[in-house]
TrEMBL record:
It comes from Mycolicibacterium obuense. Keywords: Lyase, Pyridoxal phosphate. One of its GO terms (biological process) is D-serine biosynthetic process. It catalyses: L-threonine = 2-oxobutanoate + NH4(+). Catalyzes the anaerobic formation of alpha-ketobutyrate and ammonia from threonine in a two-step reaction. The first step involved a dehydration of threonine and a production of enamine intermediates (aminocrotonate), which tautomerizes to its imine form (iminobutyrate). Both intermediates are unstable and short-lived. The second step is the nonenzymatic hydrolysis of the enamine/imine intermediates to form 2-ketobutyrate and free ammonia. In the low water environment of the cell, the second step is accelerated by RidA. The keyword Lyase applies. Transmembrane segments: none annotated. It holds the Pfam family PALP. The keyword Lyase applies. CDD domains: Thr-dehyd. Its EC number is 4.3.1.19. Gene3D superfamilies: 3.40.50.1100. This is threonine ammonia-lyase. Residues 17-302 form the Tryptophan synthase beta chain-like PALP domain.
Length: 315
């Protein structure tokens, strides 16, 4: 299996430079003194999440390799859907996005607002439905995490972290399908090999934690994974991302549902940042676990939260 390299990530950074925000690394003075806290707010991206990086890299790479394309297809619970829709609109392409029926309406509406055709499907059916849509339209499939171009695009976050904080000691990254943690892990380990990279999952969707503990991928049912409020963390690593995670992660941490909503509240009240539950798990882990001393970066991966849920967290 060919794994993504630091050169792949550097090439991705060149491809996406004109389309993606280079998010700041924000110091958080309310962090613990022995673990100075920094926040990487990917919620500031145009679509409110890090997924735009992988989407632009994958679409640009497809256009470089294949020439002219007219249609793209993606499946996602929300943020990848918006990212592909946004990138496709930028390039003048038609986007067909398959989304589970339980996807928060704020993410469905945002995807449609970028001009995409949204196809809703039942739980656990999105890959099969997307394959049918691709067959019907002739569109190029842009998967949410299971592709080297996606992993490399997400890895550009790691390049920026090292540029801004060369002395980084620990990086806490949300894990779902594993593309984000794989890419960031490759970059951090290549440039700061002594830094510790920790993945974070909800306890209710901790399939990657179990798989890395046992040494092989495990399958949790959709009904089990769908229990968590962190709707963006309900996917499972693929063989490709699991192979990366085994190489680049120093461990996995899990957090409770209460921990997650508490972190959403902390981001809003202390950091003046809006985080969706999936985007808040790294801060939850920082608060609930003892992590190594030294400068610590938490990835705020997205901020697309339903207003009602945000009000609930703040209350």
């Amino acid at each position: 299996m060919q794994l993504v390299t630091i050169d792949d990530i550097r090439a991705a950074a060149q491809r996406i430079r004109s389309h993606v925000l280079r998010t700041p690394l924000v110091p958080a003075p309310w962090g613990d003194p022995e673990r100075p806290l920094w926040v990487k707010p990917e919620s500031l991206q145009a679509i409110g999440a890090f997924k735009v990086r992988g989407a632009f890299n994958a679409l640009t790479a497809v256009r470089e390799r294949s020439g002219s394309i007219t249609d793209v297809v993606a499946y996602s619970s929300g943020n990848h859907a918006q990212a592909v829709a946004y990138a496709a609109a930028t390039f003048g392409l038609r986007a067909h996005i398959v989304m589970p029926e339980e996807t928060p309406e704020v993410k469905v509406a945002a995807t449609r607002a970028h001009g995409a055709r949204v196809v809703l499907c039942g739980a656990g059916q999105r890959e099969a439905v997307a394959a049918d849509v691709a067959a019907d339209t002739g569109g190029v499939m842009i998967p949410p995490f299971d592709h080297p171009d996606i992993i490399a695009g997400q890895g550009t976050i790691g390049l920026e972290i090292v540029d801004d904080l060369p002395e980084v000691a620990t990086v806490l990254v949300p894990v779902s399908g594993g593309g984000l943690a794989s890419g960031i892990g490759v970059a951090i380990k290549a440039l700061c090999p002594r830094a510790v990279v920790l993945g974070v999952e909800p306890e209710l969707a901790a399939d990657a934690a179990e798989g890395l503990r046992t040494g092989e991928r495990v399958d949790w049912s959709v009904s089990l994974r769908n229990r968590t409020v962190a709707d963006g963390l309900r996917s499972q690593p693929s063989e490709l991302t699991f192979a990366h995670l085994r190489q680049v992660l120093d461990g996995m941490l899990t957090v409770t549902e209460d921990d997650i909503l508490s972190a959403v509240r902390e981001f809003a009240q202390r950091g003046h940042l809006v985080a969706e539950p999936s985007g808040a798990v790294a801060l939850a882990a920082y608060r609930q676990h003892t992590t190594p001393p030294g400068p610590t970066v938490v990835i705020l991966s997205g901020g697309n939260i339903e207003p009602r849920l945000l009000a609930q967290a703040l209350a």
